[in-house]
Amino acid sequence: MxxxxxxxxxxxxxxxxxxxxxxxxxxxxxxxTVALAANDSAIATGTISPSGWLLFGLAYKPLIRVDKIARLxxxxxxxxxxxxxxxxxxxxxxxxxxKNPIDLFIRFPRKTHLFISIRSRGDREVVYNESREILQxxxxxxxxxxxxxxxxxxxxxxxxxxxxxxxxxxxxxxxxVTKTPxxxxxxxxxxxxxxxxxxxxxxxxxGSMKLLALRRKGTAFVIQEEEVTExxxxxxxxxx
Length: 240
Hints:
four-stranded mixed sheet; disordered N terminus
């Protein structure tokens, strides 16, 4: 994969759109025992050919891999169907050093960018502790809150900084990456939901949507899985 320190005249974007979707489907369908047996040495020596499940599936821990890839495939397919005519570029599973991968980086060239993190904590509700600037999780039938680690809000901020440093991966100039409006979005996957009792000032209105907008190292929007398409439409409309 290209890096800022490894320029090349044969520029090629990371896997995206239909090619990435096909890779996600391959990653979802591959036998899990085969995927677990693969390792960096096998890839390097050519014992196992690079493919969708190596590129995408092995980016995630075994306990979440199957569900994560299925969710990414679903959202990538929906986004391409809805926004292909708008010139959308969907980049799933961008790996960055020792951090969790960027689930989806969405680019509308020279219009706007979106970082999307897909998270699920089971049948629980997510609460923002404003005084501590942290996300917490509570079970519906139990008292007490646990701190969400690593914090998805901090991760989203890290992803934005990563893009600034690694803009050459996408053929972007410094001006484009710093001046392009960017949305950071935490998508809660069912049955996980945001607690309904957040204070009114934590919400923002955008178009017809009322959004939980949490300010931790910048602003991140928290939405449900079924709101993704509407959110992207509404956000994109701001920059048409």
